[in-house]
Amino acid sequence: MIQKEISSAVIERLPRYYRYLDELLEEGVERISSAELSRRMSVTASQIRQDLNHFGGFGQQGYGYNVQSLYNEIGKILGLDRAQNMVIVGGGRLGQALANYVRFEKRGFRVIGIFDRNPNLVGMWVRQCQIQYVGQLADFLKSHEVEIAALTIPRDEAEEVARLLVDNGIRAIWNFAHVDLNLLFPEDIVIENVHLSESLMRLSCKLNRERWQADG
């Protein structure tokens, strides 16, 4: 598989390709052209070809893409060809919602531990996991193979917990705490900061633009 220097924009589009290809497989579609995929995704056919050429192309002239094959290859690029254990720190509503999202398992992500400091939550079962006291987190990580952690805790706790995670073998943090963690760790620690309020504000901005245009 050919891999050049990949821009963050291409990486951000890969999960979207994967999702649309999954839908095509569910519809029983065996092959698709870049033009057809373009119409479904509202991405230009040229952009699709450029993105996939970073990894070797995968298509055949006059045939297009084999949907199953392309789905499998993008899955490998995304690291979805192997099971990946993850823990959730923060057993409140958001943490429970993440643990209950069944499509994570379909993608190969297995939530094997949930941790919280709230005694009212500790001991509660969320699907197959019983919420454990956060003080047990370090020992749990030492005895289980886990590289990914989701943080759904208040911002004032995030840095301390993130450092504990990294010190105990976590290599990737999916951060829902309202603080950016990127600058706190070396580059080999992968951090994805998710700010739900920013997404809602972007939606509001787009809505306002529509209103301005309608008002002339």
How would you characterize the overall build of this protein?
The protein is of the alpha/beta class. The chain folds into two domains: about 10-75, Winged helix-like DNA-binding domain superfamily/Winged helix DNA-binding domain (Arc Repressor Mutant, subunit A), CATH 1.10.10; about 85-200, Rossmann fold (3-Layer(aba) Sandwich), CATH 3.40.50.720. The chain has nine helices and nine strands. The strands form two sheets. The chain has a seven-stranded mixed β-sheet with strand order 5-6-4-3-7-8-9, with helices on both faces. The protein has a two-stranded antiparallel ribbon with strand order 1-2. A hairpin with a 2-residue loop joins β5 (about 125) and β6. It is globular. The mean pLDDT is about 90.
Distance between the termini: 51 Å
Helix coverage percent: 40-55%
Q: How many whole angstroms does the radius of gyration measure?
A: 20 Å
Which strand order spans the largest sheet, edge to edge or round the barrel?
5-6-4-3-7-8-9
The shape, in one word, is globular
Could you state the CATH homologous superfamily of the largest domain? NAD(P)-binding Rossmann-like Domain
Spans where pLDDT lies below 50 across 5 or more residues: none
Strand content: 15-25%
In the CATH hierarchy, the architecture of the largest domain is: 3-Layer(aba) Sandwich
Structural class call reads: alpha/beta
CATH top-level class of the largest domain: Alpha Beta
Number of H/I helices: 9
What are the SSEs and their pairings?
Blueprint (H helix, E strand, L loop, with lengths): L7 H19 L4 E2 L1 H8 L3 H9 L11 E2 H11 L6 E6 L3 H7 L3 H4 L2 E8 L8 E2 L2 E5 L3 H7 L4 E4 L3 H13 L4 E4 L14 E4 L2 H20 L1
Helix pairs in contact: 1-4, 2-3
